[in-house]
Design a protein that fits this description.
Strand content: under 5%
Largest sheet: none
Number of strands: 0
Order of helices and strands: HHH
Radius of gyration: 23 Å
Helix content: over 70%
Shape: elongated
Structural class: mainly alpha
């Protein structure tokens, strides 16, 4: 007669719950970093590669300097 291992029965829902929690955590992290602009340089590089493959990209330092200068010239809607 076969025996049922109860640890597998408990581990499967627990693994599913932990996997779901990890996915939620990654989603929250993606949302916050995107909202705050942390991924702006990555987005710029991806766009440049897709739309202008022959163009030389700015360095990350140049990109952020230009972005801050643009925001200072055109404040728009922001908190500070």
């Amino acid at each position: 007669m076969a025996t049922i291992d109860r640890t597998d029965a408990v581990a499967t829902p627990l693994r599913a719950l932990l996997g779901a929690a990890a996915r939620v955590g990654r989603g929250i992290r993606w949302y916050v970093t995107t909202l705050m602009g942390d991924r702006a340089y990555d987005t710029y590089i991806a766009h440049l590669a897709r739309a202008h493959p022959d163009a030389q990209p700015m360095t990350e330092r140049q990109f952020w300097r230009q972005r801050m200068d643009d925001q200072d010239r055109n404040p728009g809607a922001r908190c500070c």
